[in-house]
Amino acid sequence: MEGMQAYGAGKAGGAFDPVTFLQQPQTILRIVSWLFSIVIFGCIANEGYINRPQQVEEFCIFNSNQNACNYGVFMGSMAFLCCVAFLALDVYFPQISSVKDRKKVVLADVGVSAFWSFMWFVGFCFLANQWQVTKSEDNPLREGGDAARAAITFAFFSIFTWAGQSFLAFQKYKLGADSALFSQDYTDPSQDAAGAPYTSFGGDDLESPGGGGQTNSDGAFDGSGGYQRQDY
Question: pLDDT tens-digit profile of 91-127?
Fold first, then answer.
């Protein structure tokens, strides 16, 4: 029974192996996505706001569009938290004994990862477009250019890391439960037999050709009448 698994994890209550956990492809992708989110958030938050010469007020380096910087900072911070949450859930996942709960977690992983992949695609297109149309006179000293390009690059890479997580989660969903131990519709055979309606062998429906089925049956078990042949 040791090889039996449900949605990619064995029976609940097993010992946690950190080395095996860190070597799993899904864990690696989550850590990489986590690092990418830190880079994107840090690049925009630290160097994404500059000011023109002789001006104190700062503006977004992406075409002076405050929404672009806000989008990158928000996405980076939320992706960071989401990665941490799913890493913690991955650690706890083998301890979930209910197959239905495991199924919900895996489906949530598929949906959330696909959502983040799409959002990073939108973010990459948005930031790249705004950086392309940025006017050179707004930033004559070319401040923050490397940070802006790094944010765009890692936003592009995040599309594939999150898509990979969604794919691996979908593979776990397809794997499902390969053991009757984890079967969601498992029924105790003894309870199933006890709950089934009793069906007679057919003696209740026996009737003599003349319609005197009840009389014939009574006579068959009457000791005074001796043995009588039962007509079928």
Answer: 888 888 778 888 888 999 999 999 999 999 999 999 9
Task: Tell me the backbone φ, ψ of residue 96, rounded to 5 degrees.
Answer: -80, 115
CA distance 50 to 57: 8
**Do residues 11 and 181 touch, judged by C-beta distance below 8 A?**
yes
Of 120, 141, 125, the residue nearest 61 (C-alpha): 141
Tokens (6 digits) for 86: 């799913």
- Alpha-carbon torsion angle 116, 121, 124, 125, nearest 10: -140
Its pTM stands at 0.69
Instruction: For residue 174, give the 3-state DSSP assignment.
Output: helix
Measure CA of the first residue to CA of the last residue in the chain; give whole Å: 51
Alpha helix segments (H runs only) across 48-98: 66-92
CB 148 within 8 A of CB 65: no
C-alpha closest to that of 155 among 110, 119, 111, 131 = 119
The reported pLDDT for the residue numbered 215 is 46
- Write the CB contacts of 103 (distance below 8 Å, at least 6 apart in sequence): 7, 173, 176, 184
